[in-house]
């Protein structure tokens, strides 16, 4: 999202993480801006029973954790490396300086945050009231449109595991498997070599 050279010129550090490493934990103070340079990072919570709920998955070029940084509140979720990853890390002061001196970047960040709010509003509604098949299609369609930017039928490959899809939709893995097979029979998606296409 933000050009790497611009980040580095404003003092960003490129920090390496191994799969499973925590970048920050729920309840900690937000002090840095983060943008993925390689690998993938997830933001998640766990309920009282230890079930994981994934708030989002972020890959190369995507930033995460900005709302608590800008709102001066604590992180509402954990951030964890899904794979070996490198992340640009920029202190809050340096990040704010970057935004104030680059209005186009500031607007892009605002636009990204607005899209995430829209996604959250949709998912809260979906998870609370809709059937599993509908939830799954809604999350896949959101990713297809806003991440993959693909329009043709079966042109978007979902690069999430069944467990990740379950954690994003609040469903059990078994329910995701049954629902995706049912959706394939209805022609809503295709499954090739264990990958979902929409």
TrEMBL record:
Which residue intervals define the domain Cyclic nucleotide-binding in the entry?
17-116
A GO molecular function held by the record: DNA binding
Reply yes or no: does the keyword Transmembrane apply.
no
Highest taxon of source: Bacteria
Q: Which InterPro entries match?
A: cNMP-bd_dom, cNMP-bd_dom_sf, Env_Response_Regulators, HTH_CRP, RmlC-like_jellyroll, WH_DNA-bd_sf
Does the record's keyword annotation contain Transcription regulation? yes
HTH crp-type domain mapped to chain residues: 130-198
Any one GO CC term of this protein is: cytosol
What PROSITE patterns does the annotation carry? CNMP_BINDING_3, HTH_CRP_2
* Gene3D superfamilies in alphabetical order: Jelly Rolls
The signal sequence is none
Keywords, sorted A to Z:
DNA-binding, Kinase, Transcription, Transcription regulation, Transferase
Put simply, this protein is called cAMP-binding domain of CRP or a regulatory subunit of cAMP-dependent protein kinases
Organism of derivation:
Salinimicrobium sediminis
